Amino acid sequence: MSRNATAAVSEEKLAELTSAAYHVVLRHGGLRSPFIDLELDLWRELRRVLHDGSAADRPHVAAVAT
């Protein structure tokens, strides 16, 4: 894989991780819930993105955005 292709994949993954994190924060009502709950949910969601693909592929994440 070329350096440009690798950078593009990294940027795409970063965008997916950012989207997943944003939706987790929204699901927790911002930062009003206990931070440990937010941190654990972020860890789970980011792990899913890294292992399973895009956050948009999961209905519970996509539903938060609507």
SSE order and pairing:
Layout: H1 3-27, H2 35-52, H3 59-65
Describe this entry's structure for a reader.
The radius of gyration is 13 Å and the shape is elongated. It has helices at 3-27, 35-52, 59-65. The protein has 3 helices and no strands. The protein has one domain. It has 66 residues and is mainly alpha-helical.
Question: Structurally, how many domains make up the residues?
Answer: 1
| Mean pLDDT over all positions | 76
Number of discrete helical segments: 3
Shape: elongated
Beta-strand percent range: under 5%
Feature tags:
mainly alpha; 76% helix; single chain
In brief:
With 66 residues, the chain is mostly helical. It contains three helices and no strands.
